[in-house]
Amino acid sequence: MRDFFKLNNNNWQELMFDMQALRRAFYNNEDSCRTSFKEMKGFPDVCKSIDYEHKMKRKGEIYISQSRTKFAQNIIADTDGGIENISLHFINQAQGAFSINKRSKREMPMPAHSGNIFFMHEDFGEYALYKKDSVYETKGLLLPVPYFERLVNLYPDLLGDAFRRYQNGESFYLNDHFLRTNFEISNVLQQLENSNLMGNWHNAYVDSKVLELLSLMFVQEQCPMNEPCGKCCKTCTDRDKIREAAYIIESNIDNPLTIRQLALRVGVNEKKLKCGFKEVFNKTVYGYLFEYRMKIAERLLRDTQLPINEIARQLGFEYPSHFSTAFKRYFGFSPKDRCKL
Questions:
Q1: Are strands 13-18 and 36-39 parallel, antiparallel or unpaired?
Q2: How far apart are CA 321 and CA 309, in angstroms?
Q3: Domain 4-180 = CATH 3.40.50.11890
Q4: Strand stretches in 110-264, DSSP E
Q5: What are the tens digits of pLDDT across the range 177-223?
Q6: Domain residues of the chain, as ranges?
Q7: How confident is the model at residue 42 (pLDDT cuts 50, 70, 90)?
């Protein structure tokens, strides 16, 4: 990466990222919102080169933020101020993206399948660089400061040092580089997506998953890029692709992809995908999908009042009878019997 402040401005277009809608929704506890880019003076056509979508939805006391942006030209994105929050920031897809702290001028690569914890104040300033024809897809958990402070009071030895830095006015990333988003983290993120299925236990469930994510991220260690993993997954990059495939499966349980579609999404051939699942999870691809569906089904039957027909539909079963047969084969008793327990 070249020095950001020596970039040829003829090759890069500047863009201001509008945080106002996001900030207003966050501070006013709105249920959801969408945000947008606004053009910087002098570049009236820049937004036409960007396919941009950003959604934010409240889950209990926190927000889950998701964005997907496709850039048709090189972009330098600026912000008009931050939000007072602690953000668990995850990058699902990126090619050659960088963030640059305006004060320290420090550059930080933002690779795909990585994450970091961002302690942000409103006066935080950052540039972000996105290359032409790249796609940038993120997911984040935005934790209000009072919410995080309650966690600090419960676990001062674990969270106290970082929070004191934040209280002293510092905006910072917990780690000096983005770390791999491992399978455990991806799994918890997917569970948070499905938290609305927990009925009256929703808020407590969200809190438990936030703690689980914090613990995973505070103790996370980088896996060496070339560490041998097995016969099919020879590197951790290979293993990450299999875990990415598992994440895609969990995100599409109502409309599963074929093995060919799944292999294309993660960039491996079908043979390696099937072999990799056996190696990483000790299950076939469809065995993994089946087991995940059954675990979600059992949880829904246990913790919600949803009818069996609706649960079958949400899990992608065309006929409730097929769902009942599959459930009984896995657990040894029918969905109706589970409801009676």
A1: antiparallel
A2: 9
A3: no
A4: 114-120, 126-130, 134-144, 172-173, 179-180
A5: 888 787 678 878 888 887 877 778 888 999 999 999 999 888 764 44
A6: 4-180
A7: very low
